[in-house]
C-alpha cells in the first residue's frame, strides 16, 4: 500500500509503543507519539522543580496554544473551546446546560454511547420525550426518519458522529440543518471522529460538540474538549459546575465567562493539557486529510483480510469507511479472543455491550471484538492479526 502523504516509518519510530506491541485499540486509547510523552514529562518535571502554579505560568504561552491548535484542527472559533477530562465530561457539561422541560422533545440516534444514553434516560424520567431514530442497514443514521422525528417541540438533537462499534460517519451536518430548521440545539458526540476523519465544525454548524483526547488524537488519558458555540449561550442554563476559572464572582453575583471557559475548571491536569497541545500539533502537522486517507485505507484492508479468515465474521454496515471494525469469531467469546490476541502481542478490545447497547442489539449482536487501526499501523500488522485469528 502506498501512502505518499505520510512517512509511516518515521511515524512508527516516533511512537515508542510500536516497538513493543501491535496496537489495534486506537478507538480505546491510542499509542502516544514521543512529542506528547516528552511534553508531559517535561511539564511534570518543571512542576516538581519550581511548583505547579509557577510551571503553569512559565508555560502559559504553550498552554494557550492548545486552544489555537484545536481551533485550527476543527475549524472553529477558539472562544468556543473548553478543556475537559473526557468526552463524557464534555457531553454532560453540554447536555446539562440545555433547558429541557416536560413535554419537550429530544431526537437522538440508536448509536449513542452509554454516557449519552444515560443522560437521555434521565431526561425521559423527567417527562422529556426522547425519540431515537434507527440507522439504515448501511449503518448510518436514517436522515428521512430523523427529519420526520424532528418537530416543533424538538429542543435538542443528540447524535454520535462516529459510533463506537462500527466505522461509519453519520451525516451530522445534514442533521444539523434539519434541526436548526425548528430552532433545536444540536449536540454531537465526536469522541470517535476527531483525529481519524475530517471534522469541520464551521461546516457542520452544530452548537455543541464533545471530544476526547486519548483516542484518535493520541493525547494523554484524562483529556477532552467541549466545543460550545458562544452564540447559543443565551439559550443555555448557566453551567452546573463552576469555579474561579469558569466565571467571575463580584458583590453583584457570579457571572459565567462569556467564552467556553464557562465549561472549564481551573483544577485539572495541566501536564495532560500540555500533552493534548502536543498531540494537536502532531495532528495539524500531518494534516487530517492524509491521516483520514491512511486510516480509511487500512480499515478497508482489515475488513477484506479478516473476512477471508475462517470463522471470522466482519459486522460493519456497507457504509463503513473509517477505522473501527467489529468482528466476531465463531465459537469464541469476544473477551477470550481479545485475551488470546493480547498474549500474541496484539491489542484489540471487546467493548461491553452495555456501552453501545442499541446499536449492537439492533444488529443482533451481544458484542464485538473491535479492531481500530490508526495511521501508524501497517499492512504487515494486519496480516499478523489475520494469522493470529486464523490460529485461534
Ligand atoms: C462514541 C463514544 N462516545 C463517547 C465516549 C466517551 O468518551 P470518554 O471515555 O472520553 O468519556 C466514547 C468512549 O469510548 C465513545 O466511544
What series of H and E elements makes up the topology? HEHHHEHEHEHEHEHEEEEHHEEHEHEH
CATH superfamily of the largest domain: Type I PLP-dependent aspartate aminotransferase-like (Major domain)
- The coarse overall form would be globular
Number of strands: 14
Explain what this protein looks like in three dimensions:
It is a single chain. With 392 residues, this protein is α/β, with parallel strands linked by helices. It folds into 2 domains: 8-32 and 288-390, Aspartate Aminotransferase, domain 1; 38-285, Aspartate Aminotransferase, domain 2, CATH 3.40.640.10. 39% of the residues lie in helices and 15% in strands. A 7-stranded mixed sheet has the order 2-8-7-6-5-3-4, with helices on both faces. A 3-stranded antiparallel sheet has the order 11-12-14. A two-stranded parallel ribbon has the order 1-13. α2 (34-50) packs across α3 and α2 packs antiparallel against α10 (270-286). It is globular. The protein starts with 7 loop residues before the first helix and ends with a helix. The mean pLDDT is 97. Residues 86-88, 113, 115, 160, 163-164, 189, 191-192, 212, 224 line the site of pyridoxal-5'-phosphate (PLP).
Amino acid at each position: 500500500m502506498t501512502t505518499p502523504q505520510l512517512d509511516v516509518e518515521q511515524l512508527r519510530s516516533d511512537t515508542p509503543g510500536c516497538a513493543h506491541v501491535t496496537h489495534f485499540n486506537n478507538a480505546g486509547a491510542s499509542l502516544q507519539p514521543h512529542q506528547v510523552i516528552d511534553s508531559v514529562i517535561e511539564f511534570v518535571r518543571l512542576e516538581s522543580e519550581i511548583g505547579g502554579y509557577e510551571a503553569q505560568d512559565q508555560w502559559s504561552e504553550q498552554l494557550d496554544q492548545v486552544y489555537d491548535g484545536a481551533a485550527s484542527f476543527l475549524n472553529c472559533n477558539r472562544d468556543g473551546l473548553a478543556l475537559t477530562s473526557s468526552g463524557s465530561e464534555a457531553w454532560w457539561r453540554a447536555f446539562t446546560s440545555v433547558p429541557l422541560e416536560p413535554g419537550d422533545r429530544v431526537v437522538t440516534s440508536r448509536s449513542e454511547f452509554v454516557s449519552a444514553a444515560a443522560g437521555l434516560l434521565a431526561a425521559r424520567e423527567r417527562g422529556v420525550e426522547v425519540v431515537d431514530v434507527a440507522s439504515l442497514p448501511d449503518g448510518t443514521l436514517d436522515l428521512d426518519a430523523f427529519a420526520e422525528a424532528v418537530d416543533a417541540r424538538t429542543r435538542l438533537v443528540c447524535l454520535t458522529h462516529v459510533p463506537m462499534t462500527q466505522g461509519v460517519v453519520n451525516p451530522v451536518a445534514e442533521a444539523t440543518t434539519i434541526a436548526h430548521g425548528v430552532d433545536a440545539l444540536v449536540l454531537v458526540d465526536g469522541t470517535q471522529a476527531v483525529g481519524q476523519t475530517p471534522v469541520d465544525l464551521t461546516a457542520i454548524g452544530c452548537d455543541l460538540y464533545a471530544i476526547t483526547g486519548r483516542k484518535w488524537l493520541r493525547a494523554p488519558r484524562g483529556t477532552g474538549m467541549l466545543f460550545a458555540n458562544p452564540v447559543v449561550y443565551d439559550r443555555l442554563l448557566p453551567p452546573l459546575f463552576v469555579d474561579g476559572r469558569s466565571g467571575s464572582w463580584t458583590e453583584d453575583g457570579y457571572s459565567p465567562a462569556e467564552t467556553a471557559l464557562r465549561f472549564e475548571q481551573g483544577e485539572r491536569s495541566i501536564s495532560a493539557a500540555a500533552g493534548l497541545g502536543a498531540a494537536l500539533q502532531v495532528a495539524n502537522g500531518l494534516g487530517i486529510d492524509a491521516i483520514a486517507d491512511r486510516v480509511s485505507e487500512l480499515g478497508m484492508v482489515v475488513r477484506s483480510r479478516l473476512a477471508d479468515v475462517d470463522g471470522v465474521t466482519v459486522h460493519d454496515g456497507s457504509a463503513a469507511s473509517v477505522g473501527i471494525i467489529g468482528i466476531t469469531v465463531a465459537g469464541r467469546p469476544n473477551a477470550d479472543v481479545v485475551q488470546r490476541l493480547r498474549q500474541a502481542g496484539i491489542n484489540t478490545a471487546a467493548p461491553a455491550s452495555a456501552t453501545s447497547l442499541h446499536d449492537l442489539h439492533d444488529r443482533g449482536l451481544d458484542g464485538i471484538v473491535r479492531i481500530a487501526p490508526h495511521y501508524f499501523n501497517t499492512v504487515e500488522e494486519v496480516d499478523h492479526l489475520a494469522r493470529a485469528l486464523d490460529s485461534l
